[in-house]
Design brief:
single chain, about 525 residues, Rossmann fold, three-stranded parallel sheet, disordered C terminus
């Protein structure tokens, strides 16, 4: 019975249009004739620890994990996910968002694993950022293997591929040089020696390379001495596009996605991979996350949301959901996207139970949870909780639960732990992100007449969300709001201090009719409502 169910599920997944399945089918085609010689399909994500990890880094791991799970439904081939840190890169710029910047300035040019940790908690800046990344990934329960570039280079795991790169030095140069400007072309080498004197990763032209001895030679920029170093054992690293290709060959990577800004780099590294006799991985290019001003998120600038900030105001699942949505569309990643992401995610979780298999496999919550999502436990949505906190004039969870328990009889923090967590997130979000800026506008004359009428009619209507909603519509029509959307906007702006808001019938039922009448009284007091916060 179980086999029959899995076969039916696999059949559905093979044609499902959700983007993780579309990506997974690329790998099915890749191994249609021959399984991987290494015995598993290797997924890889890359991370440059030159700055603190941001949500974009997390997003790449989350999305790759979604593709990996989708592949597991349509193939029996084993898989692995390698999260690779380019921590042997030289520090080129001191990040803006770290302490003790003078300490880093003194180490410019050195491999990140040789740069002192400005936080004083790890052996190096690279180690600190690697630990931060792994802590985030572990929080979300990702199954992965972490890899350090420094460790791989020094342990000799790349030696064979580095020798292959050296053997094909001229071929690789022929691939790369046409993509460079005249000045860069004159000094470029795929090999970056680690200076034995200073420990700095040097970007210098090679004066000779010896395939038999496995060495490259260069002129020391400080004293003009000709230096010869091995390309193996961690004495050299590669320029990153060559390094990316070398890694694909050395590890036989089968799948790796990258940001849209790296389309040309993917194409170039793929050419180098083929020149070395390898096969480039499958993958796709996702759009970049932007900050509140529409700028690309940067590790060194620390703009945009951090992972910690999102998790202060919303669940890990909601962040995964945001990563799932439209990966090929650029999205702002700022505090104001959180409430909608939380409620949209909850809607998909709620809908899952009533959907057919085809719809379930296309439901974002399925990919967020790598399978069926948990049974929903959210009778009140996040936006409603934010408005409740605003109108109640409190950031105390107990006070908010008093309203919720009346709206949902028998509900409390013990019976609804997910909702309790949501209440905590809402309290934090309102307190930090909304309360400092709330401004409720005084009502216009039309608004005053309609609000007075609404207050009167609330005295006769039962505390039922649907009946209250119908009555609110009637008030708006009777007072000439055209379109009717203007009436609801007036309610949001005069009562809640927002330009958009919840279904007002549900909100009034939650907040209570008497409390809602008192809220209207404050709005009619012509500007004194702001004193409620």
């Amino acid at each position: 019975m179980a086999d029959a169910f899995m076969n039916a599920l696999r059949s559905t997944a093979l044609t499902n249009k959700a983007w993780p399945f579309e990506e997974a089918r690329k790998l099915v085609a890749r191994f249609a004739k021959t399984p991987p010689a290494k015995g598993h399909v290797l997924f890889e994500t890359g991370y440059g620890p030159s700055g603190l990890p941001h949500i974009g880094t997390f997003g790449e791991v989350a999305r790759t994990t979604m593709v990996r799970h989708a592949f597991s439904l349509i193939s029996d081939l084993p898989t692995k996910l390698l999260c690779f840190s380019d921590d042997m890169d030289g520090l080129r710029k001191v990040p803006d968002n770290v302490p003790n910047q003078a300490l880093l300035t003194e180490a410019l040019g050195k491999p990140l694993t040789q740069v002192p940790d400005p936080f004083g908690t790890h052996a190096s800046f690279g180690a600190h950022n690697n630990a931060r990344l792994q802590a985030f990934l572990d929080t979300f329960g990702f199954e992965y293997e972490f890899a350090s570039s420094t460790d791989y280079y020094k342990a000799g795991r790349f030696d064979a591929a580095l020798m292959l790169m050296l053997k094909n030095y001229d071929v690789v140069m022929d691939v790369i040089l046409p993509t460079l400007g005249p000045d860069r072309r004159a000094t470029y080498s795929p090999f970056l020696p680690i200076c034995p004197k200073t420990g700095i990763v040097l970007q210098v032209p090679m004066v000779a390379h010896d395939t038999l001895r496995g060495t490259v030679s260069y002129t020391d920029p400080n004293d003009s001495e000709t230096m010869t170093v091995l390309v193996t054992g961690g004495h050299c690293k590669l320029q990153w596009k060559a390094d990316w290709a070398m890694r694909w060959v050395a590890l036989d990577v089968d799948y790796e996605m990258a940001g849209k800004d790296l389309i040309d780099s993917v194409a170039l590294s793929s050419k180098i991979t083929r020149a070395l006799g390898g096969r480039p991985p499958e993958g796709f290019n996702y759009e970049l996350f932007l900050d509140a001003e529409g700028r690309k998120i940067s590790k060194s600038k620390g703009n945009g949301l951090s992972i910690e900030e999102w998790l202060t105001y919303a669940s890990p699942a909601s962040l995964k959901f945001y990563m799932y949505q439209n990966p090929r569309a650029a999205k702002r990643l700022h505090f104001d996207v959180i409430p909608k992401a939380v409620d949209d995610y909850a809607t998909f979780v709620t809908n899952y139970a009533s959907q057919a298999d085809e719809q379930r496999l296309g439901n974002p919550s399925y990919h967020v949870h790598s399978g069926a999502p948990p049974v929903p436990d959210l009778p009140v949505n996040f936006a409603m909780l934010l408005n409740l906190a605003a109108c109640a004039g409190t950031t105390d969870k107990t006070t908010l639960w008093a309203f919720i328990s009346r709206y949902v009889p028998g509900a409390n923090a013990a019976t609804h732990p997910e909702l309790d967590a949501q209440v905590g997130y809402a309290v934090a979000y309102f307190n930090d992100r909304i309360a400092p800026t709330v401004q409720r506008r005084p009502p216009s004359e039309q608004d005053r007449a309609a609000l007075s009428d609404l207050r009167s009619r609330l005295e006769t209507v039962p505390n039922d969300a649907n009946e209250i909603q119908t009555m609110i519509f009637e008030v708006g029509k009777d007072h000439g709001y055209e379109p009717l959307k203007g009436w609801f906007q007036a309610l949001y702006e005069t009562l809640l201090g927002t330009s958009q808001g919840p279904r007002m019938g549900s909100f009034i039922a939650l907040y209570g009719i008497e409390n809602s009448k008192a809220l209207i009284n404050k709005a009619l007091a012509n500007g004194n409502l702001n004193a409620a916060i």
